[in-house]
Amino acid sequence: NAGVMQNPRHLVRRRGQEARLRCSPMKGHSHVYWYRQLPEEGLKFMVYLQKENIIDESGMPKERFSAEFPKEGPSILRIQQVVRGDSAAYFCASSQGGNSPLHFGNGTRLTVT
Amino acid sequence: SQQGEEDPQALSIQEGENATMNCSYKTSINNLQWYRQNSGRGLVHLILIRSNEREKHSGRLRVTLDTSKKSSSLLITASRAADTASYFCATDSGGGADGLTFGKGTHLIIQP
After folding, report:
1. Nearest Cβ partner of A104 from B42, B48, B92?
2. Contact between residue B111 and residue B12 where contact means Cβ atoms under 8 Å apart
3. pLDDT means over runs of 10, chain A (113 residues)
4. What residues 60-79 of chain A have any CB closer than 8 A to a CB of chain B?
5. Backbone φ, ψ for residue A96 (5° rounding)
6. N or C: which end of chain B has fewer CB within 10 A?
7. Burial (0-12, 13-18, 19+ Cβ within 10 Å), A16
């Protein structure tokens, strides 16, 4: 019974390139959340999705960032034209919805050089 | 603005001692959750306490919630080296659809 799977584990991109981060939720979970974590900081909410729908993207920067959770396949967080400030750990979590606890993946560590 | 803020930022104690971490928040909540994060890993859910509950236990963990003071505490009894991690409190905003809001965490170090 696999937990939340994120890949890649580490991603290095040069400034201006695109970064695509993938997240497969736990089996049976239809709610996906993306968070960003800077060193020594807590997690900052970015976006909440259900299958094929963005429910809340209030934490997502207006430009260059997008997220999707298609009917088939993993959720994707896409960062276009990356800049150094995008370097961070990006965590995906899934849940059954409501007030059920979040189950986190081990994150993707993005480094922009 | 930060919804949950943990205190202290860092805590170092001897193995076997009890560790207490506090969390304060600003707006009304439906529930408050505590998570643990080991270095380089994702967060692991520890315990959830609802707004109408005052105390909850899970193994060596005890969580209290005081909604009048908008604060919660996490007590780890008889600490072990394996408890070394960062601990975060997280609140929902009451709206249901939003993601959880996390504090910056308390970094706990258990000295063997």
Report:
1. B42
2. yes
3. 89 98 95 91 90 91 95 95 96 88 94 97
4. none
5. -90, 0
6. N
7. exposed
